[in-house]
Amino acid sequence: LYLHVFDWPSDGQLLVPGLKNHVKSARLLVGGKKLAAQNHEDGLVISVPPTAPDKISSTIVLKIQGAPEVVVMPLLQKYDGSVMLPANEARLHGSTIKYESGGALDNLGYWTDPDDWADWQFKVEQPGKFTVSAIISSPAASPFQISTGGQTISCTAPVTGDYTTFRSVTLGSIEIPAAGLVRLAVRPVKDGWQPMNLRAIKLIPLASGSDK
Question: Comparing C-alpha atoms, which of 122, 113, 133, 46 is closest to residue 91?
Fold first, then answer.
């Protein structure tokens, strides 16, 4: 396998989610430096140098035993503590909401029924407080709620002019008190709901001591 790494981990631990094969060898393509690798409950963890060999894309050559054996995993928290919840990974509930792709679209759309909703399940190993933001397009301000672990944030979609002009907006903050599986849901508020397109939700760790 050739692993093309665009987001080089600063902690020196590169996770290949869900890969269960025994590793025969791992090395950098440029220079051939050998790398240690070990199986982990979330997949395969490769120990890499602190600095990426290439600023854009670094390649790791991985030799495994047998055909690739990959287990479907929940979305995982990134090494910097952030969590990205893209539209194409959402679980959809309802009759009209659907995932749209192609051109400028990569989002949840056709959200005409306020009874429809979406959620994501993800795994957290670094719990704490997080700022919640979303990438949204919407011709009109539209109310919705984000909920997780008994917490609810009341939100309003930004007016972007049309369904293909997206904007990132900060929605509030939540606390995830413990490591483990987490479920986050997005639900329209029926009173005043207007369809919006949702591309992604992102959780960013708040700095220690910050309550903004």
Answer: 122
Quick: pLDDT tens for 36-86.
999 988 899 999 999 999 999 999 999 999 999 998 888 999 889 999 999
Q: Where are the beta strands (DSSP E) in the chain?
A: 2-5, 13-17, 23-28, 37-40, 43-47, 58-64, 75-76, 83-86, 91-93, 98-102, 105-109, 117-124, 128-137, 143-148, 151-156, 167-176, 180-188, 197-205
Cα separation, 194 vs 142, in Å, equals: 5
Q: What is the pTM of this model?
A: 0.78
**Alpha-carbon gap, residue 212 to 35, rounded angstroms:** 40
What is the token pair recorded at 60? 């790791």
